[in-house]
Amino acid sequence: MNDRQNTVLATTLAALILGSVFLCPWRIQPSDKLRWSPIYQPPLTYVRTFDAERGRAGGSRIDRPTAQIDYGMLALQGLAVLLAGGAGIVLTRNADREFDPPPPPSSR
Q: The pTM is what?
């Protein structure tokens, strides 16, 4: 491997690690929306319960929606990074060749 391929490989590995940590897809229940976040903290909501029979407050609690990592989207994200890295390695395969024309012959 040449130096440019090593650079592309290192960049691809760093993108896999950082992409999976800092762009982790979370599927939020029950709205089923995607949220891209390294550490998802769902918002807390204050829920008051009422007694339907007597029409008065029954109690209160703090509730939060649940969120799950969407592993399918995470796999697609990793595959996209790997394909981009593979394309970069293929494109830099001949990077050591000189594309400048040869120097003119010396006149002696």
A: 0.65
Q: Could you give the CA distance from residue 105 to residue 88 in angstroms, rounded to a whole number?
A: 36
Amino acid at 48: R
pLDDT in tens, 76-104: 999 999 999 999 999 888 766 655 567 78
Question: How many CA atoms lie less than 13 Å away from 9 in the CB half-sphere?
Answer: 8
Pull the structure tokens for residue 100. 């400048």
Average pLDDT along the chain, 108 residues, taken 10 residues at a time:
88 93 83 78 75 66 80 93 94 69 74
Length of the chain: 108
Distance of alpha carbon 5 from alpha carbon 98, whole angstroms: 16
In angstroms, the CA 67 to CA 103 distance is 64
